[in-house]
Amino acid sequence: MADPPPLRLLVVDDEAQILELLDLSLSLQGFDVRTALSGPQALALASEQPFDTVVMDVLMSPWDGLETARRLHARLGAAAPPVVLLTGLSLPDHDPAADPLIAAALTKPFRPSELVAVIWQVQARQLDRRPHLTPSSPGS
Predict the structure, then answer these.
(1) Which end of the chain is more exposed for a tag (fewer CB within 10 A), N or C?
(2) What is the pLDDT of residues 25-46, one digit of tens each?
(3) pTM recorded for the entire structure
(4) Response regulatory domain: from which residue to which, for each copy (predicted)?
């Protein structure tokens, strides 16, 4: 049986060195990573190809992470991937129900293993939200 394809991640940060480090760390963990240096570039990439999760810094220009998440949802609707925000700001525990545009938030500094765990948690929640198909019984 073939392995499932790797998760497709869009990683967004306006600092090239951070972006390169995230790309390398996540690629080594088996993710299929695409990168963007800005919100507009992320929106263009997400409009061209589907992603399973967006990992994005909060403090960027010209759009911050929250504005980019809003624009992703406005453009893609239900097809918008879940967003994991990375921030250097101290945040209270993030409640995804409080802001449906953001699936999770992680405060810097963090270990790559922590980011990987958050990505998998977000994906598990996405699977739980999908409608479950029940097999039809014979003869129905």
Answers:
(1) N
(2) 999 999 999 999 999 999 999 9
(3) 0.85
(4) 8-123
